[in-house]
Every structure is written in structure tokens, then in C-alpha cells.
Design brief:
Blueprint: E1 5-8, E2 15-18, H1 27-40, E3 42-45, H2 52-62, E4 65-66, E5 73-75, E6 78-86, E7 114-121, E8 129-133, H3 134-139, H4 143-148, E9 153-157, H5 163-173, E10 182-186, E11 188-191, E12 194-197, E13 204-208, H6 215-226, E14 232-235, E15 242-246, E16 250-254, E17 262-269
Bound molecules: fe (ii) ion (FE2).
Fe (ii) ion is lined by residues 96, 101, 103, 252.
């Protein structure tokens, strides 16, 4: 099998992994994929079109898949695959849209670290996924901000600004809305030996462990900072593509989709 190659994404956000067939990976290639994921935070693998079994097996080779009960499951045989479907007449916001975020930052323990999507049905010219690199955003912070947030923590809530997309989804599925969940985490993390920003604007309520007079300003500053164009890659999907990201180092959001169908298969992993 040919050896895989790596091409960085736009603005150095994430990396494409080229020349691989996920169905035929050997251990050396799996290790290379894990290394690339850890180094870049998000990887893009084009046009794999995996059947559910191969897709779930790939997830198991990268981490430990977790059941995500608040999204529709694919099938009893594939408990880890959730279906994210957008119908042409859906009028509400797309799940996870409008706010950059890091999945499940409102959980204190056992957060699923990785999220993976595969494009099953992709509309033309719509439905990009927007990624922002916490590595690049941290690196470009002014020195005085780095000092101010050195030991800062964030309070993250499932009732944060992004909650509306979850509530709409729960209503659609007839699930009783869960109680609000809240957790506190350091906002500067070290992944693969590099510092990265963990600020999940969709869930961030408050910055703590900073000078009290700076808390509001720093929250606003950091939210605006990770949204700057220079840290963003808007990924345009093709059918069968796989995006896999580390929620510690990469922020993401869905973009708006109107009057068309889009289906993704999603797996989260520890
Ligand atoms: Fe998300």
C-alpha cells in the first residue's frame, strides 16, 4: 500500500491525510493518523464512503467510541453511529450552528475527546463545517493576555448560547430536556506538548481565576479572538469525506443549511 501524505488545511488549521484507504489500514498507518490528529487537532480524509461497520471499526482503532443518547442512532447493530439529518423543510437552526464550540465542554469528567463526521448526503455549496485552531489562536495571543490567562478557568454550561440547537433537537425527537450541566476547566491546555485555547464560546459562561476587573473583558476578547478569520478553515464537504477532530485543540461549528437534505454519520470517542 502507498504511504500516506499530509497537506495542511487553509490557515494551517488541521491537515488532509492523502492516499489512504481506511478499509485497509495497517497499524503503522493508524499510528500515523493518531500522530497527525494530535499534532494538527483535526484531520480531513476525502471520499472514503465507508459502510457503517468499517466506519465504526475505524473509530475503535482511534479511540473508545461512546454512546451519545441525545441524537438519533443509526441502528441497533451500530450503537455508536448517530445520524445528523437536515431535511429540506427544516426551519430551525442546524445542530451545533451559530457558535464555535468544543463538544460537551459542560461535562466535568469523561468528556468524549474526539468527534468524527462522515458525509453521507451532501448538498451542493452549503453546509460547510467551520473549524478554528486553538493551537494557532493561543500562539497569536498578545503576551500580556497569555500572562493574564495562565491559570484561568472557564465555567462551561449546556445552557450556554448554543443550547437552542440542542433544545430544538430534543423537542424534535420528543426527548424530555435534560437538566443543565455545568463544569469548570482550565482554558489553556497542553496537547502534544503545545498550548491550546479551550474556550468553547457556545458554552462559556464566565472566566475565573483572573483579576476580577478583567474577567468580563477577557471572556469577550477570547471569544472574538478564536473567531478571527486567520484561525478559521471552512471545510467544504464531498460525499464520503471524514473529518475527525480533538475537542481539546479544535473548535467547530455547523453553518446554515437551507432548503436541502444533508445527512452525516457522527461518532464521538474517548
Ligand atoms: Fe459540535
Amino acid at each position: 500500500m502507498s504511504s500516506l501524505s499530509i497537506t495542511p488545511g487553509t490557515n494551517n488549521v488541521g491537515a488532509y491525510i492523502n492516499s489512504i484507504e481506511i478499509k485497509e489500514l495497517d497499524q503503522k498507518q493508524i499510528n500515523k493518523i493518531k500522530d497527525t490528529l494530535s499534532q494538527f487537532g483535526v484531520i480531513f480524509i476525502k471520499k472514503q464512503n465507508l459502510d457503517p461497520e468499517s466506519y465504526q471499526n475505524f473509530a475503535k482503532s482511534i479511540g473508545t467510541p461512546v454512546v451519545y443518547p441525545r441524537l438519533k442512532g443509526l441502528d441497533k447493530k451500530f450503537p455508536f453511529i448517530n445520524v445528523i439529518e437536515r431535511k429540506p423543510d427544516d426551519k430551525n437552526l442546524s445542530f451545533g450552528s451559530s457558535w464555535l464550540h468544543q463538544d460537551t465542554s459542560y461535562l466535568a469528567n469523561d468528556r468524549p475527546r474526539y468527534t468524527m463526521l462522515m458525509g453521507i448526503e451532501i448538498p451542493n455549496g452549503q453546509g460547510n463545517t467551520i473549524f478554528s485552531s486553538g493551537f494557532n489562536a493561543y500562539e497569536k495571543l498578545p503576551y500580556e493576555i497569555k500572562i493574564k490567562i495562565e491559570n484561568a478557568t472557564g465555567i462551561f454550561s449546556s445552557s450556554g448560547p448554543i443550547a437552542i440547537t440542542r433544545l430544538e433537537r430534543e423537542k424534535e425527537m420528543g426527548i424530555k430536556s435534560s437538566d443543565s450541566m455545568e463544569a469548570e476547566h482550565p482554558i489553556v491546555k497542553i496537547v502534544n506538548g503545545k498550548k491550546t485555547l479551550y474556550v468553547s464560546p457556545g458554552h462559556l459562561m464566565k472566566i475565573k481565576n483572573v483579576d476580577e476587573k478583567d474577567a468580563v473583558y477577557l471572556k469577550q476578547y477570547l471569544v472574538e479572538h478564536v473567531n478571527k478569520k486567520e484561525f478559521i478553515f471552512s471545510y467544504e464537504w464531498s460525499k464520503g469525506d471524514i473529518c475527525l477532530w480533538d475537542n481539546l485543540s479544535i473548535l467547530h461549528m455547523a453553518s446554515e443549511i437551507k432548503n436541502c437534505r444533508r445527512v452525516m454519520h457522527r461518532i464521538t470517542m474517548k
